[in-house]
Amino acid sequence: MPSAAMPSPPREAPPSSLVASFHPAVVIHHTELQAPPSPRTHRALRRLQSAHSLGAAARPINQPSLISQQRRDLHRNGSPTRDLGHGAASRSPQRGRANSDATPPLAHYMNLAAAAKRSSLKKPVFSHGHLSLQQIIRDGPNDGDFVGALESARWKVVDEGIKSAEDGMSPLRIYVWLVLLDAPIMSTDEYLSLIHRGASPAYSKIRNDTFRTLTTDPLFRRRVSEASLIRLLNAIAWKLQDAKEDQRQSRPSSRQSSHPRESLTGSVSGHSQAKSSAGPEPGTYVQGMNVLAAPFLYAARSEAEAFVAFYSLLTRECPAYIRGAMDGVHRGLALVDKVLAIVDPKLSMYLTAKGLSAEIYAFPSVLTLCACTPPLPEVLRLWDFLFAYGPHLNIVCIVAQLTIMRSQILQSPSPNKVLRSFPQLNADLVKSVTIGIIKKIPDDVYAEITMHAL
């Protein structure tokens, strides 16, 4: 693990070649909705050719995202591997190469980097390691090596970060997020069609949330209008509603029987079979999604880009956060308590003695992937890390923040006052502490973390 936080990357203006390299086949003519004050949003909506290559060509249609596939493969194998020795030699020749096979886990990367620093050796070598992150995203993989390009990109995101200005703005970030989230190509017209449907069933809930979104953050308020946030969330609500309708219509009707008892049992069994065949219940709009959507609108160069990235996160990486009674969030909160008890028993027992569980103080941090903790530029940098190695690691990031403020909590006779608002987010420090905590977590608990949001 690196002994110190990495320095902030220098500012760098977007090269003209980045715009010139856009593939004409994926250029989408942007229809102006209601642009936020920033001049950046007046640019036409474009998609990088390599984003299409990495996101679409690397996997068949309707397959789960790369991060999701890795989590599920680890869960299937029973124990996630976070050390050396899990690679090509352990793969079965009877099956295709899984993403979890191709991509060494995070702790493995960090161990390699720490060992290289201690021994003055070079950093780990990856197939696209000689290229900058911008080149990988702009030009795509060499010789069709999608997995190698993605592996190199993920490492560079953690090791070097995404170059951005002091306000967190970067011409590259949204495209890196789209690739890491494996977001599909979507036309602006599809987004506009959702907007033109008018108010969704969740519209009143949305209007009750949007005006309270990051009200103390001047950067967000200056760049993103409330109208833009309303449109995005309303479109998301329609999309989720459509998924519910599609599932309802796909359920086969149960066969009616003349015998009352037979009819009853047949109905129950038919409902159970229909439910299992249709898959998990789709999500719906929940309070807090406004804060979770905010960084996407801030980082994206159009509402349509923000929409497709946000929808991919909700439906592929953390669908249980917006499903039913938000079971995934509550599982995440229980895991915050469990991990804290493992890595810092004294702090855990102190909070328990004060009657403070994660359900009381960490609900917003779990639901919003720490987007509720300012400043926004640091949230963006933390999300770079989470999208590179899985949003499920947010659970460990929350524990990292608790250990960072450990002395303040232990010295306070009323720690609930301290925990009402976490200290200003420092993404590099949180990442460094998180990586250290990962090494202490037992395999079975780590497996729970990887799967809790699905």
From TrEMBL:
One of its GO terms (cellular component) is mitotic spindle pole body. Residues 54-104, 244-282 are annotated as: Disordered. InterPro entries: Rab-GAP-TBC_dom, Rab-GAP_TBC_sf. GO terms for molecular function: GTPase activator activity. One of its GO terms (biological process) is cell division. The keyword Cell cycle applies. It holds the Pfam family RabGAP-TBC. PROSITE patterns: TBC_RABGAP. Keywords: Cell cycle, Cell division. It comes from the Eukaryota. This is Cell division control protein 16.
